[in-house]
Amino acid sequence: MKDDSLLAHAGRHPFKNKGVVNPPVYHASTILFPTLDSFHGRDPKVKVTYGRKGTPTSHALEDAVCALEGGAGTVTASSGLGAVTTAIQACTKAGDHVLITDSVYAPTRLYMDKMLARFGVTVEYYEPTIGADIEKYIKPETAMIFMEAPGSWTFEMQDVPAIVSVAKKHEILTIIDNTWSAGYFFKPLSLGVDISVQAATKYIVGHSDAMMGVITCNEATLPRVREAAWLLGMCAGPDDLYLAQRGLRSMGTRLRQHHENGVKLANWLKNRPEVTRVMHPALPDDPGHEIWKRDFTGACGLFGFVMNEVPEKALAAMLEGLHFFGMGYSWGGFESLLIPVNPNSVRTAAKWDGEGQTMRMHVGLEDVEDLILDLEAGFERLKQAL
C-alpha cells in the first residue's frame, strides 16, 4: 500500500464501530472485566485493561503511525518531548555513555544535561555531519546514539546509514528524531535505526491545536519502550489522540504543499540582499543536499536562513509588522512562522559558524505570493529602522 492510501485507511475499522468512518473517542480510566480470567490477564481476547495502557482511540493512531514508519509497534506520548524522553530512558541505565548530535532539539539537550546526567548517564555531543567517524567516540559503555535529521535550527543532514552501521558493529541502540519528515519523507527504520520518535504535535496533528508524541520501534526495542511508557505514567489524552488521527489523514497532501511552498521561499530568500545564507537540504547547493536526495523523498516547510547582523529594534520592526508570519514556538501547522534563534546558545561540540542573525522559518499553506509580499514589506521596515 502506498503512503497516501495508508494515511487514509490505516488504523480505521469502520465495521467494528457500527460503520463509523473515524475511530470513536474513548474517554476512559477504569475498564471493567467480564470474567476473573480476563481480570487476571488470562484472556488473550481482552486488549484494553486500563485507560493509561491504551484504548481503541490510542490503538488506532498507533497502528496507523506504525504502518507509516514501518515498525513493529508504536507507543503514543503526551508530547514530542515525552516521546523523546521515554525512548531514551527505555534504552539507558546508570553507568551508560550516550552520544547525541550537537544539532539536537534544545529541550532534548536540556533533558540530557539536567535529568539524564543526574541518573549516572554520561552524555557526550558529536558534530552533526560526522558520519562513520563517530566510531572514534565509541566507548565500551556506549549504549545509545541519538540522531536528528536535519538538525534543529541549523538543518545539517546526518549520514544515518553510516552511523547505524557503526552502531550495529558495536551493538549500540540508535534513536532518531524524525519529526521533520513526519515519517512520510524518510523511513529510518528501513535503514536499521532502532527507534523513530516524532513530535506528532507538528505535521501529524497539523493544525497547531494538540500536543502529541509517537515512538515507533523495531521488534527488539518495542517491549522495553512499552514498559518505560507504562512505568513513567506516559499516555496521551483521548481528544488529542482524535485530533492527531484526523490530522494524519490529510498529512500527505499538506506535506507536499509545505515542500513546494518552502522550496519556493527558500530560493526567493537566497536572492535577497539582507540574507547571507539559506539552510534548506532540498536546495542543490546545500551541504547536505546529496544525503537528503539519497535518503529522503521530500522536504517539509521548516528551514533556516542567516541575515546580516541587525540591531534588535530593526528586527522587531520587521517581525512585528508581518501579517502572515507569526512569532511562536512549535511548527508544522497550516500557518507560517518566523523567529530569531541563537544556535550557539545550544551548541557545545562545534561552534555554529553563521555570521549574522540566524532565523527559523516555517512555511505554511498560504499562497506563496502573499508570503513573499509580506516578507518584502518586512525587509523594507527593517531597512527603514536601521
From TrEMBL:
<dbReference type="InterPro" id="IPR015422">
    <property type="entry name" value="PyrdxlP-dep_Trfase_small"/>
</dbReference>
<dbReference type="Pfam" id="PF01053">
    <property type="entry name" value="Cys_Met_Meta_PP"/>
</dbReference>
<dbReference type="InterPro" id="IPR015424">
    <property type="entry name" value="PyrdxlP-dep_Trfase"/>
</dbReference>
<comment type="pathway">
    <text>Amino-acid biosynthesis; L-methionine biosynthesis via de novo pathway; L-homocysteine from L-cystathionine: step 1/1.</text>
</comment>
<dbReference type="InterPro" id="IPR054542">
    <property type="entry name" value="Cys_met_metab_PP"/>
</dbReference>
<keyword id="KW-0663">Pyridoxal phosphate</keyword>
<dbReference type="InterPro" id="IPR006233">
    <property type="entry name" value="Cys_b_lyase_bac"/>
</dbReference>
<dbReference type="GO" id="GO:0047804">
    <property type="term" value="F:cysteine-S-conjugate beta-lyase activity"/>
</dbReference>
<comment type="similarity">
    <text>Belongs to the trans-sulfuration enzymes family.</text>
</comment>
<dbReference type="InterPro" id="IPR015421">
    <property type="entry name" value="PyrdxlP-dep_Trfase_major"/>
</dbReference>
<dbReference type="GO" id="GO:0030170">
    <property type="term" value="F:pyridoxal phosphate binding"/>
</dbReference>
<dbReference type="InterPro" id="IPR000277">
    <property type="entry name" value="Cys/Met-Metab_PyrdxlP-dep_enz"/>
</dbReference>
<protein>
    <submittedName>
        <fullName>Cystathionine beta-lyase</fullName>
    </submittedName>
</protein>
<dbReference type="GO" id="GO:0019346">
    <property type="term" value="P:transsulfuration"/>
</dbReference>
<keyword id="KW-0456">Lyase</keyword>
<feature type="modified residue" description="N6-(pyridoxal phosphate)lysine">
    <location>
        <position position="202"/>
    </location>
</feature>
<dbReference type="GO" id="GO:0019450">
    <property type="term" value="P:L-cysteine catabolic process to pyruvate"/>
</dbReference>
